[in-house]
Amino acid sequence: MSSVLTSGIDNTYDTPGRRTPLVTGGHNYSAVTRMVSRISEEAQPTVWWIAMGIAVPLLIMFVSLIGHLFLTGVGVWGNMSPVFWAWPIVNFVFWVGIGHAGTLISAILFLFRQNWRTSINRAAEAMTIFAVVCAGTFPGIHVGRAWLAFWLTPYPSLNLWMWPQFRSPLLWDVFAVGTYASVSLVFWYMGMIPDLATFRDRSKTKWRRMIYGILCLGWSGSSRHWMRYEKAYAILAALATPLVLSVHTVVSFDFAVSQLPGWHTTIFPPYFVAGAIFSGFGMVLTLLIPVRAIYNLKDLITPRHLENMCKIILATGSMVGLAYITEFYMAWYSQNPNEYFTFVNRAFGPYWWAYWIMFTCNVISPQVFWFRIFRQNVILMWIVTIFVNIGMWFERFVITVTSLSRDFLPSSWGYFQPTWVDIGMLVGSFGLFTTLFCLFCKYLPIVAISEVKGVMSQHAHDEHRHEHGHSH
Amino acid sequence: MSDHKPEKKVKPPQAFGWMAEYDDENKFLDAARKVRDSGYTRTDAFAPFPVHGIDEALGIKPTVLPWFTLIAGACGTTTALVMECWMNGYSYPYIISGKPFISLPAFIPVAFELTVLFAAFTTVFAMLGLNGLPKFSNPVFSNPKFDRATDDRFFIWVDSRDKYFNSDKVKALLEGTSPLAVDEVREDDTSTDVPKALYFGILTLILASLIPAVLVWNMRSVRSDKSRWHVFFDMDFMPYRKAQKQTTIFADGRTQRPPVPGTVPRGGYAIDDPMYLGYTPDANTAMITPDSSSVVKLVSAQEGAAQEPKPQEPAPTTQEPTPPAQEPEKPAEKPAQEPTAEPAKQEPATTEPAKQEEPKPEPAKTEPAKTEVAQEPAKPEPPKSVPATPITPAPAAQVPAAQAPAAAAQQPPVAAATPAVPDRKYLEKLPEQFQANDEMFALGRKKFEQVCSACHGFAGYGNGLVSKRAEALQSSYWLQPTSVHDERLQKQPIGQVYYTITNGKGKMAGYGSTLNVKERWAVALYVKSLQRSQNAQATDLSN
């Protein structure tokens, strides 16, 4: 909107005494409402159509490949002895990891009173949901007979009268990812209710008013409702915080509880969680940098927001790097020849290229965020986040495939070769993700309008009190 | 919770009240305090975001919502633990990775997840329930200005059902709080008409969504003559292995699988034990030295005989000297030289691991006793020996495998060469490890009927069901299985029967990898008994 006005303002410095505003450009409440609602109310820009034009065919390809898989069998993948967990699981862990940023921003940053989260949390939560949709697809189709995937749930079977095996990390995973997906969904939806009411009240057509009216459940903005709503939000944040950490911990148990060298390490849970936050913030930035440019949200998603996210990427990327090095150290320190071999083989064996892509993208590339220039130049930032995404995919590839391809029995060692279906499905999952995100941009409030206003209000409120003192 | 209830009852059509509009949250807060201080309780304040201090300003009591969360969380934990303990500990206990049936540490993750799941969903639904949502009709919505309550305006509302309500006084009070406007609100009584169509629509949708479930339930519960409707094929249409049919599963088209090349069955490693061989390796085995290479030789010999088409090529292989695959052109000369030159020359080749894979009879040459394929090329004695059966031409034609004919085509010249046949000393009796008792006989009968009778028939006349079927189909290349009552076979000692069962003969594959030693001897015993039963002598009755 008035980005011309704001271009000279640098809100990345905190001046002592008064907090710098989180919303720049001197907007009032109604301007914020317009800025966000406009995205849904006006025709979409060309870039949106181009994105959909690419994403929808990819989505169709993804669905077709799943159909091909169902009709033919899992042999269409490159999964072959000894690498039985290959790209589908790599993709699963990759997408689940990405799905961690949204709830982290909504929940953990909320508990830490990081008010800057309000501009980005909605988009990040949406990204979480869509990433979890992609993630959930892969183990679902990986079970072979996907139409029987409901066997994973403890339901009373009339024919078998059997129950799942609750001592297995794979079943914990079903519960963890299922809980995470559903709780994230209600969290996201609950957060949107007031903004959907805004959309309803701005509707020009009867149908639009009715649909958003149903979606917002008749939200009126009553202060009694707000009071319970805020309480519920805080409770959900408190519940979701350990949930976020548990999900990738449980995903890491899938690996760590097995006996395979390279998987069987206690460092996995924190290492996976750090990696998940790292990749999640990488993807949030990858999406938000174009979104704020396309929809002109630069006053809401300000350089300060981007800089904060860069700092988190730098921190978590360094944690991941520390984990890589620790793994090597432990392999040497344990004096376990199998363990030692596994890690040397990772870095210098047949998959050396994957290891060094991972190491370069995840550990070295985020280090540029030590320099202010990289935290402020959106183009450079965006390139680094792309590297982060690539690196994190390769991290899961390295963990999964290099360990499996050289297991205990040297006679069964092999080299994994993906098939065209493997590649098509990875690309297709991006089509699914992008399609969902584009639809989200078109139909739903991509910034938490009411929360941003709350942050603006606090500011105004503080000013007011400054002027008048405590009037009660 | 209780403080909200009144609002739900705002429903009565005549309900109305006064509403004041503000454009600044500070005025709004001040107004709320004034309204509260005036003693009104049926009030509400609407804002586009949660305004700090409004709870206190309007006198809103704290919510009971956290208790719902606590109780639901406890229910989640309990549900998960009870479910896990009951399912894995009592209803369906099984041992896995050495963990106890009820393994609390392993139950924690699911318990945690269900705690969060129950608590989170309850929190959201309790919040909505306490707020009385969804509620699509609200008197305040009838004021067109109210659309800005979700944008940038703040509203204070005083309900007419407040016990101190006095229309004029309320209006005056609100006007004294510097609002943008003060409006009277009446309930919109036109709204009830709209949903009718919606109700029908939703009802139709619900009913329509039940159709697939009803169809599935019907298909699952009703019996039908029609074949199953395959949504998913599961494993219903697999490339099955069918007798007398070529299979697409294996490259050679055969369904009966030979042992994996280069493997020795457990307990099957014996070089010179008559119990395993079926004959006494005396003179023939003179050359055997228990050196390290003997395993290799044994293995390659097994391959040559059991797995490859060789055993099925009767005459040619018997004289064995010439490896058919290797040198088909000059088969005749080889045999002659073999006894002398060959052993020395071929020895290195056999020990070479790479060569094991190939079905070469060379090893047999050097280690005559071990190989089923004949050794001793010099001895021409067709009738008695294993390989030299009269069925010579047949086998190749019978083998359904694509490659068999090709192999067969090469054989005739070899066959024409000197028919060398080993003169093995087959055992005339069961080996001493086994007794010809009822148990052995019963085992032999059982295995014969399971394994052999399909082709050979229950009585051994070579008229098993497979054979009958093939004849019924007028299969051109079908050759009836040998009758065990054939005079030639009657003369065979039990050791030779055992040998044939183990290594196969003609088109019959070896069953050395299917039946264990005892079973093979038992079947041999049963075959001998069958022969005797069909040609009983008067003297047999004496027993």
Kindly describe this structure.
The complex is a heterodimer of chains A (472) and B (543). Chain A is mostly helical. Chain A has a domain at 28-310 and 415-459. Helices cover 69% and strands 0% of the residues of chain A. Chain A contains 17 helices and no strands. Chain A has helices spanning 3-6, 29-41, 46-72, 87-98, 100-111, 121-142, 169-202, 206-215, 223-256, 268-294, 303-333, 337-348, 352-364, 372-376, 378-405, 420-443, 449-468. Chain A is globular and about 70 Å long. Residues 1-5 and 466-472 of chain A have low confidence and may be disordered. Chain B folds into 3 domains: 1-207, no CATH class; 274-425, no CATH class; 438-542, Cytochrome c-like domain (Cytochrome Bc1 Complex, Chain D, domain 2), CATH 1.10.760.10. Chain B is 45% helix and 6% strand. With 543 residues, chain B is mainly α. Mean pLDDT of chain B is 72; it is low at 1-10 and 285-421. Chain B has helices at residues 5-8, 25-37, 54-58, 65-91, 104-131, 167-175, 195-221, 274-277, 293-307, 314-318, 333-351, 353-356, 362-366, 394-398, 403-416, 438-456, 465-472, 487-491, 494-503, 517-534; strands at 16-22, 43-46, 154-159, 181-186, 279-280, 425-426, 504-505, 508-509. Chain B has 20 helices and 8 strands. Chain B is rod-shaped and about 130 Å long. At the A-B interface, helix 2, helix 7, helix 9 and helix 17 of A face helix 2, strand 2, helix 3, helix 4 and helix 5 of B.
Question: What topology emerges from the helices and strands here?
Answer:
The complex is a heterodimer of chains A (472) and B (543).
Chain A: H1 3-6, H2 29-41, H3 46-72, H4 87-98, H5 100-111, H6 121-142, H7 169-202, H8 206-215, H9 223-256, H10 268-294, H11 303-333, H12 337-348, H13 352-364, H14 372-376, H15 378-405, H16 420-443, H17 449-468
Helix pairs in contact in A: 2-17, 3-16, 4-6, 4-10, 4-15, 5-6, 5-9, 5-10, 6-7, 6-10, 6-16, 7-8, 7-9, 9-10, 10-11, 10-15, 11-12, 11-13, 12-13, 13-15
Chain B: H1 5-8, E1 16-22, H2 25-37, E2 43-46, H3 54-58, H4 65-91, H5 104-131, E3 154-159, H6 167-175, E4 181-186, H7 195-221, H8 274-277, E5 279-280, H9 293-307, H10 314-318, H11 333-351, H12 353-356, H13 362-366, H14 394-398, H15 403-416, E6 425-426, H16 438-456, H17 465-472, H18 487-491, H19 494-503, E7 504-505, E8 508-509, H20 517-534
Antiparallel strand pairs in B: 1-3, 1-4, 2-3, 5-6, 7-8
